From TrEMBL:
Pathway: Nucleoside biosynthesis; alpha-ribazole biosynthesis; alpha-ribazole from 5,6-dimethylbenzimidazole: step 1/2. It comes from Syntrophobotulus glycolicus (strain DSM 8271 / FlGlyR). Belongs to the CobT family. The gene is cobT. Its EC number is 2.4.2.21. This is Nicotinate-nucleotide--dimethylbenzimidazole phosphoribosyltransferase.
Length: 356
């Protein structure tokens, strides 16, 4: 807990001076004021985080936390739990969706076994930080102990430190774990007060009958576990997962080390929600990506005060929204570095009307 407390107390606000300087620079470029919309918003946000301008984030990666979930024993997923291990291995073969999209963005992918219920290959392709072989069945008992929960969060923080030492400048958050839309839904229901129908969807895919069963199981879980909404670690330990906890640690670690960090889908944004409840300043370092098709996603975005950069009907997870946002970040920062000013373009910028 000493590491977590150190990180929580060491997170500072982003730089307001850098915000003003970057916005002033963008407003002096040869274009109508604010005409590049969210690209300008991204450029300002990156400057606020790094505290400087111009910026170039060349070294980027996605951290994928893999873990199994005991609640799968209750039939909340149509996919067998064994797929967690299989797809985790597939990521090391660089054939999964996150591998393909990351290659296009020039980003690396690091796969972390934080709780897979299998003995994975010890070939150096998977970072072994396994806390336990999957969480417990949260319908019968708390998913994790509080100590395991803190250890998982601190694992995420430690991964960020390792990546900072390697020179990474922006990190995306991904996961792999059958049943983790159920754990994410339970966390969101606990912290925001949504019903199961408002919080979760059909995950990787299921029939309407199975979906009704999934929602009933989640309501039963919350009735039995009674998580304390005022204590994010209590919520996480009782109804969360190792992957969510690790991701929460990444968001906190990035805020501490002043790195931009990108949100992906439902599981990722659930980790962001936990981080925000542990230290609200961490939100200032988060960048959204897409609008997940899972129902609870909009509610958490509203809670965090952010909006998606794009909506492509994506619901894969794995961190797949992050490489697309990396590309948007590259474009936004290139505008700030390379676009000419009114003076350079011999244009009188004073004639422009600000309609923002």
């Amino acid at each position: 807990m000493s590491l977590l407390n150190e990180i929580l107390s060491g997170i500072n606000p982003v730089s307001p001076e850098a915000v003003l300087q970057t916005q002033k620079h963008l407003d002096n470029l040869i274009k109508p004021l604010g005409s590049l919309g969210k690209l300008e918003e991204i450029a300002v946000r990156i400057s606020a985080i790094t505290g400087k301008r111009p910026n170039s984030l060349e070294k980027k990666c996605v951290l994928v936390f893999a873990a199994d979930n005991g609640i799968c024993a209750e039939g909340v997923s149509a996919a067998p739990a064994a797929i967690t291990a299989l797809q985790t291995i597939n990521m090391t073969k660089r054939i999964a969706g996150i591998n393909v999209l990351s290659r296009q963005a020039g980003a690396d992918v690091y796969v972390v076994d934080i709780g897979v219920d299998a003995d994975l290959p010890q070939d150096g392709m998977i970072i072994d930080r396994k806390i336990r072989r999957g969480t417990r069945n949260m319908l019968l008992e708390p998913a994790m102990t509080r100590e395991e929960t803190i250890r998982a969060v601190e694992t995420g923080i430690e991964m960020v430190k390792d990546l900072v030492d390697q020179g990474y400048q922006v990190i995306g958050t991904g996961e792999m774990g059958i049943g983790n839309t159920s754990t994410s839904g339970a966390v969101i229901m606990s912290l925001i007060g949504l019903s199961a129908g408002e919080a979760v969807g059909k995950g990787a895919g299921m029939t309407e009958i199975d979906f009704e069963h999934k929602k009933a199981v989640l309501h039963a879980v919350l009735d039995k576990r009674q998580p304390d909404s005022g204590d994010p670690l209590d919520v996480l330990s009782k109804v969360g997962g190792y992957d969510i906890a690790g991701i929460a640690g990444v968001f906190l670690g990035c805020a501490y080390y002043r790195l931009p960090v990108v949100i992906d889908g439902l599981i990722s944004i659930t980790g962001a929600l936990i981080a925000s409840r542990l230290n609200p300043l961490s939100v200032q370092y988060m960048l959204p990506s897409h609008l997940s098709a899972e129902p609870g996603y909009r509610a958490v975005m509203a809670e965090l005060g952010i909006s998606p950069y794009f909506d492509l009907d994506m619901r894969l997870g794995e961190g797949t929204g992050c490489p697309l946002t990396f590309y948007l970040i590259d474009c936004a920062l290139a505008v700030g570095r390379e676009m000419g000013t009114f003076e350079q373009g011999e244009i009188d910028g004073s004639v422009l009307v600000d309609i923002r």
